[in-house]
Amino acid sequence: MKRSHAGAGSADISNKCLPCPDSPNCVSSQSVDNAHFIEPLHYTTNTAGARRKLLEILKRIPRVHLAKVETDYIHAEFRTSIFRFVDDVTFFFPPDKKIIHVRSASRTGYYDFGENRRRVERLRARFEK
């Protein structure tokens, strides 16, 4: 079942945040299917303040490497503690909107047993504090 979400399919979506593959090891706020969709992060400050806050949170998480940081885009690599797998988490700040699109995906494997969804929800809880 497909459903439309705020931001999905609109002109402000950057190709920096790739669509999720068919496998269940990815979530994205830009996905149009229920299995992969997750709400974007919301903020009330200005974009620079939200970006700064998100970067502070990411820098305090063990085994996170900031691979790319731009004005409207952040790519973080999360390394798992046991097997050292890398998961890619990207954030996109669309202009003139108080949301941060997020995508979290495993680089390898097929199942993630819900880890990408839990990761985004943990980030959301920290971000909304």
Notes on the protein architecture:
It is built from 2 helices and 6 strands; from the N terminus they run ββαββββα. Strands 1, 2, 3, 4, 5 and 6 form a 6-stranded antiparallel sheet that branches. With 129 residues, the protein is an alpha+beta fold. A hairpin with a 6-residue loop joins strand 5 (86-92) and strand 6 (99-106). The protein has a single domain (27-127), classed as TATA-Binding Protein (2-Layer Sandwich), CATH 3.30.310. The chain is 20% helix and 26% strand. It is globular, with a radius of gyration of 14 Å. Mean pLDDT is 87; it is low at 1-15. It starts with 25 loop residues before the first strand and ends with a helix.
The CATH topology assignment is TATA-Binding Protein
The termini sit apart by: 33 Å
The total count of strands amounts to: 6
Q: Can you give the helix content as a percent range?
A: 10-25%
Offer a quick outline of the entry:
This protein is of the alpha+beta class. It is built from two helices and six strands; from the N terminus they run ββαββββα. Strands 1, 2, 3, 4, 5 and 6 form a six-stranded antiparallel β-sheet that branches.
Write the layout of secondary structure elements.
Layout: E1 26-28, E2 41-42, H1 47-59, E3 64-69, E4 73-79, E5 86-92, E6 99-106, H2 115-127
Antiparallel strand pairs: 1-6, 2-6, 3-4, 4-5, 5-6
